[in-house]
């Protein structure tokens, strides 16, 4: 699909619960949080599941300090967009693997939350031409697709003591180079900017490798996406029917 192709509007009827599953604190704040803020304002239930605590993500801060700091920043960031249910797993930041254990953890969360919609991070090898993706994102994203099916199979992970859930309608991939749909975030862009800004220590740690201004970054991204979506400020997803 051409990167200039028009984006379809993501349908916002027929579902009420969302589970966002990503690898690290801050993964959702580079665009998806604007859609999440819109949905929570509509009364939709949204929960976050993070595979790691992001403890290896700050070069100037040791993991034992960075982990708790990034957890707190993520909790505060999620609250800005109306999410208070935030769970962190203990898969090692930077070394997340596509294992049965990871699938089991995600399947358990799916069975607990019983979502209609799953949001995850780009699982493709690249973000776009010339920009390679990292292993944590690739492995986590692919494990999500497997876990959706695992969660629906009552003969898998029976030790969890949780009823199977086959109600996931769609998986939405944020940051995908193959985006198919978009969500209008005109009214929630400010919340998205504030949500990303809550990761202040992490963004400062990135220095020249990160961004100096979350407002400029997210506004530019929303306007670029909007060029494929009726000139509205928007965030995009690749949508898979399950």
From TrEMBL:
Zinc keyword on record: yes
PANTHER family, per database record: LMBE FAMILY PROTEIN, N-ACETYLGLUCOSAMINYL-PHOSPHATIDYLINOSITOL DE-N-ACETYLASE-RELATED
Species annotation: Stackebrandtia nassauensis (strain DSM 44728 / CIP 108903 / NRRL B-16338 / NBRC 102104 / LLR-40K-21)
InterPro entries the UniProt entry points to: GlcNAc_PI_deacetylase-related (IPR003737), LmbE-like_dom_sf (IPR024078)
GO molecular function ontology, one term from the record: hydrolase activity, acting on carbon-nitrogen (but not peptide) bonds, in linear amides
UniProt protein name: LmbE family protein
Key word Cell cycle present: no
Top-level lineage group: Bacteria
Entries under Pfam families matching the protein: PIG-L
Classification via Gene3D superfamilies: LmbE-like (3.40.50.10320)
Gene Ontology biological process terms in this record: glycoside metabolic process
Keywords from the named record: Zinc
């Amino acid at each position: 699909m051409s990167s200039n192709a028009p984006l379809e509007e993501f349908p916002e009827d027929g579902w009420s619960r969302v589970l966002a599953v990503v690898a690290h604190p801050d993964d959702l704040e580079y665009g998806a949080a604007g859609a999440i803020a819109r949905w929570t304002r509509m009364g939709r239930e949204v929960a976050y599941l993070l595979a790691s605590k992001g403890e290896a993500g700050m070069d100037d801060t040791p993991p034992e300090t960075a982990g708790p700091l990034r957890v707190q920043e993520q909790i505060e960031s999620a609250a800005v967009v109306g999410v208070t249910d935030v769970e962190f797993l203990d898969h090692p930041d930077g070394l997340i693997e596509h294992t049965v254990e990871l699938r089991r953890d995600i399947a358990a969360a799916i069975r607990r939350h019983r979502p209609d919609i799953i949001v995850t991070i780009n699982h493709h090898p690249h973000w776009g031409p010339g920009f390679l993706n990292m292993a944590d994102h690739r492995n986590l994203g692919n494990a999500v697709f497997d876990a959706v099916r695992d969660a629906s199979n009552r003969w898998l992970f029976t030790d969890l003591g949780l009823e199977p859930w086959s109600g996931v309608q769609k998986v939405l991939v944020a940051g995908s180079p193959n985006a198919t749909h978009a969500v209008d975030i005109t009214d929630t862009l400010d919340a998205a900017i504030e949500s990303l800004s809550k990761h202040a220590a992490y963004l400062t740690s990135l220095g020249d490798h990160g961004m100096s201004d979350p407002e400029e970054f997210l506004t530019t991204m929303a306007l670029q996406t909007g060029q494929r979506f009726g000139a509205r400020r928007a965030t995009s997803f690749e949508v898979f029917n399950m």
